[in-house]
Specification:
By secondary structure, the chain is an alpha/beta fold. It contains 10 helices and 13 strands. 37% of the residues lie in helices and 14% in strands. Strands 1-3-2-4-5-6-11 form a 7-stranded mixed sheet, with helices on both faces. α2 (73-83) runs parallel beside α4 (105-125) and α6 packs across α8 (273-284). Bound molecules: guanosine-5'-diphosphate. Guanosine-5'-diphosphate (GDP) binds next to α6 and β8.
Length: 353
């Protein structure tokens, strides 16, 4: 287990474009000297959470899969009783893009139900003071009216490609609610939109939309190919959020007296996949044509989140898509371009800060 001692909780967040600062008026949970467990700390959101908490003064508890298998109920219970974290950011989960979800539904359902049951029930039994559970925007019905408010949950059918994963996440939200109602546990769920940023998974088939398009744009540019292939027909709309913005929102919600059991955390607007692909082409320097692969699923046509609840707490995102996507490409060049079969040193990120 890794234990990091970070410095005092800072209530000021200057975003990467430096355009706004927010102030937490009502800090009820000060992390200084407290034990905070971040599950899934090696993933994209988990590592952003570690970055966000670095100035909090907390002792960050981080467990690798070898040290603690979250699928092993007894091991999770023993670990929680032995380590007694006060706060838990439950981020560790089996995640993947629309194609991975369509092809591996049993894995997504079984692993996520098991992991979250172990962590959430274990947190209750070990007396954790507050837990945040990360769900997904695919939990909302495909026919929900836009922007989607939190109370749209469980009011209609789900997209068939990602239903198994969505059901696992709905079960997690309901579990937090049930422990709140029955035991008075301060367990809160978060629904982010489509996430991207440093530490993303660039798997050719299993990645999420931004990572998938970014990788193919880079490969097309490096190979001198004139077409960038984007899945679906380009018309579905998606709301993007930089992972550092989500981590900061989660720190904010953990620190404040959040009255609700579920918060959407989005940027407040969405774009067509075709627009997202154009920005990615721009930041990667791909200048050819964008083609659409109609054999791949479009998924839900729109899933814009209603941000009213989290906005009323005083949180706002700080990173624009263009800056964030340029930063994501720099991260890709630094960490993955060589694996993607191209020469990283030959690529340069365009735009951004
Ligand atoms: P994700 O796959 O988890 O990012 O999420 P969604 O369920 O929100 O669907 C992604 C949308 O982006 C769908 O309309 C896809 O057809 C489209 N898309 C376009 N290119 C890609 C790609 O390379 N990877 C992924 N995952 N989606 C893509």
């Amino acid at each position: 287990m890794l234990v990091n001692e970070a410095s005092f909780f800072s209530v000021e967040n200057s975003g990467c474009n430096g355009q706004f600062n927010y102030q937490v008026d009502d800090v009820v949970n000060d992390f200084k000297g407290k034990k905070v467990w971040i599950t899934g700390h090696r993933g994209m959101l988990g590592s952003a959470m570690v970055r966000s908490m670095a100035d909090s003064g907390a002792y960050l508890l981080m467990t690798s899969r070898v040290e603690l298998d979250l699928l092993d109920r007894d091991a999770v219970m023993d670990w929680l009783h032995a380590n007694q974290p006060e706060f838990v950011f439950h981020i560790g989960a089996k995640v993947g893009g629309i194609f991975a979800n369509a092809t591996l539904p049993a894995d997504f359902l079984f692993e996520n139900l098991s992991i979250q049951s172990n962590v959430i029930d274990g947190a209750y039994r070990a007396g954790v003071r507050k837990l945040l559970f990360v769900a997904s925007n695919c939990t909302y019905p495909t026919n929900a009216s836009q922007p989607i408010a939190e109370d749209a949950l469980l009011t209609g059918p789900l997209d068939g490609n990602i239903r198994a994963y969505a059901v696992s996440k709905i079960a997690g939200i309901e579990m937090c609610r049930a422990y709140r109602r029955q035991h008075g546990s301060d367990f809160v769920s978060i629904i982010p939109p489509n996430l991207y940023g440093p530490g993303d998974n660039y798997h050719p088939q299993h990645s999420h939309v931004v990572a998938g398009i970014l990788r193919r744009a880079h490969e097309a540019k490096m190979a001198g190919v004139k077409e960038l292939v984007v899945w679906g027909d380009g018309t579905p709309r998606r709301e993007l959020l930089h992972v550092d913005d989500l981590a900061n929102a989660m720190k904010f919600i953990m620190a404040t007296d959040a009255e609700h059991d579920l918060y959407n955390v989005g940027c407040g607007h969405d774009m067509a996949i075709s627009q997202i692909a154009s920005i990615i082409a721009e930041v990667t320097g791909f200048t050819g044509a964008i083609e659409y692969d109609h054999s791949k699923p479009n998924g839900t046509m729109r899933k814009l989140l209603d941000n009213t609840r989290v906005s009323s707490l005083g949180w706002k995102p700080a990173i624009s898509e263009r800056d964030g996507l340029a930063g994501a490409y720099r991260d890709f060049l630094a960490r993955h371009a060589a694996e993607a079969g191209t020469d990283a040193s030959a690529g340069t990120a365009a735009g951004g800060h």
